[in-house]
Structures are given as C-alpha cells and as structure tokens.
C-alpha cells in the first residue's frame, strides 16, 4: 500500500525550495542594483554604464568622438548600449542559474 504522506513530504520540500529561491532572488535583486556594468563601442570612444538590473546610469563620450559627427556618435552610443545590455543579460542569467542550481523546480 503506497504511503499517502509521501506526496505531502514532496510538496513540503518543493515549497521550501521555492521559498529559498524567492529569498535568494530578493538578495540577488539588491546586489544587481548596486552592480555597474560597462559597455563600450569598438573604438572605445563611448562607454555606457548600466546597473545589473539594466537601468542606464551614465554615458561617457570621449571628446575625440565629437569630430566624427552626430550620426557616428549616435551609432557608437547604440553600440555601447547593446554591449552593456548583452553583458548585463549574461550576468543576470548566470546569477539566476547559480541561484537555482541543484533545485528540481519546474520552470527553472
């Protein structure tokens, strides 16, 4: 005869693991808010800094880039933003994988 309480124990364990992930996610969110991630264009004349939560913090444009014209500077800013976004996304994905590693939670 199967143990009717076996499923309850599994459910309780899953609930406990979900709570651990939630707590870890809140801590991770706080860490990411403080983190600064830099993205640059290929020439290095423009740098974009965003938080680990992908909030733009600042843009630094080298004076030398201004002689190249508005269209070129715009392209460099876009390139630097894309670089920062990619780095931030990779960081977030990596940190979430660390947070959920070893847990058998559906959807993670």
What is the radius of gyration computed over CA atoms, rounded to a whole number of angstroms? Answer: 22 Å
Low-confidence stretches: none
The end-to-end distance, rounded to whole angstroms, is 33 Å
Helix/strand-derived category reads: alpha+beta
Strand order of the largest sheet: 1-2-3
What does this structure look like?
- This protein is α+β, with helices and mostly antiparallel strands and 108 residues long.
- It has one domain: Nucleoid-associated protein YbaB-like domain (Ybab, Chain: A).
- It has helices spanning 6-34, 70-100, and strands at residues 36-40, 46-51, 56-61.
- The chain has a three-stranded antiparallel sheet.
- Helix 1 runs antiparallel to helix 2 (70-100).
- The protein starts with 5 loop residues before the first helix and ends in an 8-residue tail after the last helix.
- The mean pLDDT is 85.
Kindly summarize this structure in a few lines.
With 108 residues, this protein is of the alpha+beta class. The protein contains two helices and three strands, in the order H-E-E-E-H. It has one domain (6-100): Ybab, Chain: A (2-Layer Sandwich), CATH 3.30.1310.
Features of this protein?
108 residues, alpha+beta, 3-stranded antiparallel β-sheet, 56% helix
